[in-house]
Amino acid sequence: MILELEGTDNRARAGTLRLPHGNVPTPVFMPVGTQASVKTVSNEELYAMEAEIILSNAYHLYLRPGIEVIKNAGGIHSFMNWKKNLLTDSGGFQVFSLAAINKVNDEGVEFQSHIDGSYHKITPEKDIEIQSAIGADIIMCFDQCIEASASLFDAKAALDRTTAWAKRCKSEWLRLCDDKNTKASEQQLFGIVQGGMFEELRKESAGQMVEIDFPGYAIGGLSVGEDKATLYRMLSTTTKELPEDKPRYLMGVGVPEDILYGIELGVDMFDCVFATRAARNATVFTQDGKQSLRNKSLEYELEPIDEDCSCYTCKNYYRSYLRHLFKANEILGLRLASIHNLHFLIELTKKAREAILNKRFAEYKNNFLSRYMGGKFKNVVF
User: In the annotation, is 268 catalytic?
Assistant: First the structure.
């Protein structure tokens, strides 16, 4: 059992993930380092903000630098000098997002590299071999993600393929666990729930994943263009079908309001590229909502981004200076904004955890979102 539950508040949960590179308190936000690097942020800065687990992507690492390069370094932790836990996404979302150069069939995916145009084929078995060689602490099944507007027919077809692939992924993982030359026995494999925007399909997919039996479960295929109400409805439906004693990971969803609603619905793990992507475009999170560091109103502001924030950026730099960095196209601006946004989300989940343990999560969520979203906040009741 890798999840030890320590407290609940209605459906919200607080616990600890027991993983090879240290314990991870949950709920947790995982910074995304797609290509073995969290953009503009060093490992030491991630340690300072107490990031206990980060995410990389098997699809991208397979293409560059290549699995043999990572194996030669002794695995991903040694290769990137990361001393804490790491999760690899299987690449299912990249198959979806790069559909123009991919061909999906029951056997797997044939695709052209977006880097050099070379041709490749990945099956569920090969995907698990790739992730085993990379050496992440948590690895993901290969799945088929679809757009939010997909029909019932297409959503069911993708669900069936995802289930078939999940069975093959688990079989390959178990085979590799018996091979002392691999790291598979030290890894935890998560199944991924799909089903599009159809509640019955979500229930069906969750039931099939639970029947296959994985150490943990991910919820995929959300935040792909649907509205917030649909996102939360699909999430609420799915988490009800998943085991209480295993971790639940909501893939690719990571803005403050979605994280807090996800926690309320029983999600333990979150990741999203938005925090660093927004930061590189001068947008930062504050207690009073998102703010652009390019705003002229900040020109003479001798205050931090957020007076309540304890991150390195807020402890050392004024809004006025940060605005100057972005106006002057200085790289330091991207770094400082990224540090702030990641710290903000990590602290958000820490405070949510504390609120759950004190049976005050609903109060914490509502107070935070009332300020963060202002007049746009209308509590959703599940």
Answer: no
Q: What's the residue count for the chain?
A: 382
Q: What is the pTM of this model?
A: 0.97
Share of the chain above pLDDT 70, in %: 98
Is 89 one of the catalytic residues? yes
Contact 136, 76 (CB under 8 A): yes
3-class secondary structure per residue, the chain = CCEEEEEEECCEEEEEEEECCEEEEECEEECECCCCCCCCCCHHHHHHCCCCEEEEEHHHHHHCCCHHHHHHCCCHHHHHCCCCEEEEECCHHHHHHCHHHEEECCCCEEEECCCCCCEEEECHHHHHHHHHHHCCCEEECCCCCCCCCCCHHHHHHHHHHHHHHHHHHHHHHHHHHCCCCCCHHHCEEEEEECCCCCHHHHHHHHHHHHHHCCCEEEECCCCCCCCHHHHHHHHHHHHCCCCCCCCEEECCCCCHHHHHHHHHCCCCEEECCHHHHHHHCCEEEECCEEEECCCHHHCCCCCCCCCCCCCHHHHHCCHHHHHHHHHCCCHHHHHHHHHHHHHHHHHHHHHHHHHHHCCCHHHHHHHHHHHHHHHHCCCCCC
**Domains parsed from the chain with CATH numbers:** 3-272 (3.20.20.105), 279-368 (no CATH)
Question: pLDDT, tens digit, for every residue of 216-266?
Answer: 999 999 999 999 999 999 999 999 999 999 999 999 999 999 999 999 999
Given 9, 143, 271, 306, the catalytic residue: 271
Q: How far apart are CA 134 and CA 11, in angstroms?
A: 34
Which of 89, 127, 143, 268 is catalytic? The answer is 89
